[in-house]
Design the sequence.
């Protein structure tokens, strides 16, 4: 157990729907990062939050949004889902902002859009 | 286009053999990390290298950071089936980290 908790572990939904993925960071970590991993794209950085504020944005689609709450947990919202959104979605956390000393990853949410 | 290029993409070897995988970039990073990922799990941090030319050893694994802090290598001595997995390098920027596509290693008993 890495200390980063992601729910749900698996999610199957239809095209056009909206889903919410949840992440609780490791105790003491203030930064949360979201990554998408697909077979042909590898790990793609989506967005980072530090202590409730957005710090960096990567290749995140406009249909996707995220937030970090006062208790530091984070949610990634995916809407108007397409087949191509099927992927593993990982949350990672770190004490400080930036990856200088590495991240702790959760076990991921496997999203299947049918 | 990947910011970090890893080679080889796939590697299949017999137990007991040695191997080296590489991570190259045209960018300079403040640090570089290596992760190992097993199927259905998130990446697990193996090591962080910060100083150009730095060498770190973790049992049978040796990590090296290039002098210019643009590239790194991972050498495994006497590989074991338990070393099987996806090895990812990642370069740290100001506020995020970018990953290579990984080297998928299979060690056959």
Sequence:
């Amino acid at each position: 157990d890495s200390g980063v908790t992601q729910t749900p572990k698996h999610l199957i939904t239809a095209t056009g729907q909206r889903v919410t993925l949840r992440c609780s960071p490791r105790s003491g970590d203030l930064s949360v990062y979201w990554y998408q991993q697909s077979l042909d794209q590898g790990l793609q950085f989506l967005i980072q939050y530090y202590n409730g504020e957005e710090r960096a944005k990567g290749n995140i689609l406009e249909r996707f949004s995220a937030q970090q709450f006062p208790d530091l947990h984070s949610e990634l919202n995916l809407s108007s889902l397409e087949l191509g959104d099927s992927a593993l979605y990982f949350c990672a956390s770190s004490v400080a902002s930036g990856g200088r000393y590495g991240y702790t990853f959760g076990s991921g949410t496997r999203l299947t859009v049918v | 286009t990947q910011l970090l290029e890893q080679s080889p993409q796939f590697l299949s070897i017999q137990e007991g053999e040695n191997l080296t995988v590489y991570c190259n970039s045209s960018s300079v990073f403040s640090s570089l990390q290596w992760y190992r990922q097993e199927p259905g799990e998130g990446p697990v941090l193996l090591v962080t290298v910060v100083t150009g030319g730095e060498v770190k050893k973790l049992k049978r694994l040796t990590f090296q950071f290039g002098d210019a802090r643009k590239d790194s290598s991972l050498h495994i001595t006497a590989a074991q089936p338990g070393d099987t997995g996806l090895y990812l390098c990642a370069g740290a920027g100001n506020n995020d980290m970018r990953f290579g596509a990984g080297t998928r290693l299979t060690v056959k008993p």
